[in-house]
Amino acid sequence: MSTVTDLSGDELRELYRDLILDHARRPRHFGRLVSPTHEAEGINPLCGDKLHLYLAIDDENIVRDASFEGSGCAISIASASLLTEAVIGLDRSDVLARRSAVTAALRGETRPADLGKLQSLLGVRDFPSRVKCATLAWHALAGALNRHNVPANTEN
Amino acid sequence: MKPLQAESGRDFLDVRDDFPALDQLVQGHPLVYLDSAASSQQPIAVIEAVASYQQRDHANVHRGVHTLSHRATEAYEGARDKLRAFVNARSRHEVVLTSGTTASINLVAQSYCRPRLGAGDRILITHLEHHSNIVPWQLVCEQTGAELLVAPMLDDGQLDLGRLHEMLSMKVRMLALGHVSNALGTINPVREIIEWAHEQDVPVLLDGAQAVPHMAVDVQELDCDFYAFSGHKMFGPTGTGVLYGRESLLDAMPPWQGGGDMILEVRFDGTIYNELPYKFEAGTPNIGGVVGLGAAVDYLQGIGMERISAHEAALLAYLSERLAGIDGLRLIGTAPYKAAVQSFLVGDIHPHDLGTILDHQGVAIRTGHHCAMPVMQYFSIPGTARASLALYNEPGDVDRLVSAIRKAQEIFG
């Protein structure tokens, strides 16, 4: 075994926080909505992660319900689960604003604003190859709101 | 690290120092590179051969009368001769230099199969194949109306040989299969399979990308019709590869791509193609890369493929033994004859999460579908973690892998 002191534990714990592991193991709002008004698929073609996001938005542009299904790593599943929790009850424009804030923070482009529980996703900033896992559901969210018929793809 | 060798009496190679990339810290830990099946590291001899060519000898090949062009041609053609000897082809005419296994297989699909196939004809592949030995055949089937048949696999990662044998008589015009599975490490009994195919007059292409780094390959002894492999999986540069083809077959095939170097005479009313193997080598090739690949052949032959196979067999046995001792670890691919490749799953930890945690401890493995999605579909899993060993790995690397997996289990509780 290596004699080098293990300096890496903290970053890993930061990535795999209890909240992330909890959402990965017991994703909230998992499954399809009965009558979604908006939906989109998110695909990460490099690793095969695939999520389908459903939204039910009412006439006043409020997200009444959100859910997702699919398969992926702990980060992508937890991110999708947290997303559904975060958007329910928000106005459509607030959803878009939140999406921009989260994806910019995940990419390290901005200092995190107050993201609440979503703050726990920011551990990925130390793992460049895993940022796409965290942003996958948020790409799908944009796709759903824009009513794109093509799957959101982390590569474009 | 060495005590293990003494204990077990296993004779391990000690060549790690030949590979400069292995001598570095990753995430604060000495690198343990267990992803050679994706791409292997290069020995200093290869790196220096490429550098020396680029620094002194570079010019275009087969063209100029000047000294550098002559040197470049000698170096390039010298590498072809080494590659001919490496797989024991009868003649250098049978050694087509390509950009890799993918290009080699596409060449056969388009040049050999496409003109011969029609509705009702079949191409037979297997469930174990890498995407590069699936998609080129799907394309040629779409182009010609032929049908793709897939010989099934068994739970341990072996081919269902009985079914494969039966399927060979179903109007099959080409059998294409991997010599060694990249995802599971299964070594297929290709000598026997080729015999069955030839009894039905079915030509056979072997995808040898995962075989050539691990074992001696003799295309005459195998009696295969085509053999495709890549340089970058056998310690050479990327963008290099070989298509071995039986001369009589290559002779009868039309060129695949047109351009310079593949012609004898070009006129607007018709062009005369160059002789083998140049007919299939349109355009300026990856000369420096091929020179490096020649150096890789020298390096491997300097050690001896038999010694490399023995080293890896001992290392694989040690790996299997250590992985078996980890609770909740499931081995994917347990065929009796395997190259030093092991896929596995750890509890309910997704392979990508495992890969990140291992990387953080300096251990590089491949995670995901390994460009063999049908294999993953067979096991109903999104992907696996895969440790692939090469001649430069040591028992200590296996120990580091095991410790890193235990750490992942700790994090995932």
Oligomer: heterodimer
Number of strands of chain B: 17
Largest sheet of chain B: 7 strands, mixed
Main sheet: strand order of chain B: 4-10-9-8-7-5-6
Q: What is the structural class of chain A? A: alpha+beta
Low-confidence stretches of chain A: 1-7
Please mark out the parts of chain B with pLDDT under 50 across 5 or more consecutive residues, or reply none.
1-8
Strand content of chain B: 15-25%
Shape of chain A: globular
Question: Span from first to last CA of chain B?
Answer: 29 Å
Number of strands of chain A: 4
Q: What's the mean pLDDT score of chain B?
A: 95
Radius of gyration of chain A: 16 Å
Global outline of chain B:
globular
Count of helical stretches of chain B: 14
Which class do the helix and strand fractions of chain B yield? alpha/beta
Order of neighbouring strands in the sheet with most strands of chain A: 3-2-1-4
Task: Report on this structure.
The complex is a heterodimer of chains A (156) and B (413). In chain A, 38% of the residues lie in helices and 17% in strands. With 156 residues, chain A is α+β, with helices and mostly antiparallel strands. In chain A, strands 3-2-1-4 form a 4-stranded mixed sheet, with helices on one face. The radius of gyration of chain A is 16 Å and the shape is globular. The model of chain A is unreliable at 1-7 (pLDDT under 50). With 413 residues, chain B is α/β, with parallel strands linked by helices. The radius of gyration of chain B is 22 Å and the shape is globular. Chain B has 14 helices and 17 strands. In chain B, helix 3 (67-87) packs across helix 10 (287-303) and helix 4 runs parallel beside helix 5. In chain B, the strands form 5 sheets. Chain B has a 7-stranded mixed sheet, sandwiched between helices.
Keywords:
heterodimer; A: 156 residues; alpha+beta; 5 helices; 38% helix; disordered N terminus; B: 413 residues; alpha/beta; 7-stranded mixed β-sheet; 17 strands
Task: Furnish the topology, listing elements before pairings.
The complex is a heterodimer of chains A (156) and B (413).
Chain A: H1 9-15, H2 18-25, E1 38-44, E2 49-57, E3 63-71, H3 74-87, H4 92-106, H5 131-145, E4 152-153
Parallel strand pairs in A: 1-4
Antiparallel strand pairs in A: 1-2, 2-3
Helix pairs in contact in A: 2-3, 3-5, 4-5
Chain B: H1 2-8, E1 25-26, E2 29-30, E3 32-33, H2 44-57, H3 67-87, E4 95-98, H4 101-113, E5 122-126, H5 135-144, E6 147-151, H6 161-167, E7 172-178, H7 190-199, E8 204-207, H8 219-222, E9 226-230, E10 241-245, H9 247-252, E11 263-267, E12 270-273, H10 287-303, H11 305-324, E13 329-332, E14 341-346, H12 351-359, E15 363-364, E16 366-368, H13 373-379, E17 384-388, H14 395-411
Parallel strand pairs in B: 3-15, 5-6, 5-7, 7-8, 8-9
Antiparallel strand pairs in B: 1-2, 4-10, 9-10, 11-12, 13-14, 14-17, 16-17
Helix pairs in contact in B: 2-10, 3-10, 4-5, 11-14, 12-14
